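Human:
I keep going back and forth on a fold encoding question. Comparing notes only helps if you start from a blank page. Show me how you would write down a chain together with its backbone fold. Write it directly below this note and I will take it from there.

Assistant:
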Amino acid sequence: MTRTQIRQLTFELLYSLEVQKISEEEQEEQINLFLKEQGIEQENVKNYIISTVKGIEKSKQEILKYISENLKEKWDISRISKINLTLLKLATYEIVYIKTPYKVVVNEVVELAKKYGDDSSPSFINGILANIIKQAGITTEEQ
């Protein structure tokens, strides 16, 4: 399974948890159910998905702060669609916390936005992520 496919599955799980408003206590059960339903048995894939979902949950406040601070003036995070917000959380976590090369993350998340979001999603996400990358002080040398 490619990293692109793994990232898509991670997004699908994150979105499902977001829509269902799963509590932290129920999260473990939902993750295991998702992995079983998807037939995911490779340990590296399981580990990536689980650690990413848990990492986003653990760093949720900081991630939301990054996103909020990079919205246009008079925009509130509550106006962002659940799909776009989930994609932004995933990308921010990967770029800022696990140091995945931002060019890869942005490209793949924009592709997911084209697939799952509305017509404005790709450019919206691209703009927010560009600002987050600058804010986090990530340079091309680090990538």
Remarks:
- The chain has one domain: 3-142.
- The chain has a mean pLDDT of 92.
- The chain is about 75% helix and 0% strand.
- The domain at 3-142 is CATH 1.10.940.10 (N-utilizing Substance Protein B Homolog; Chain A).
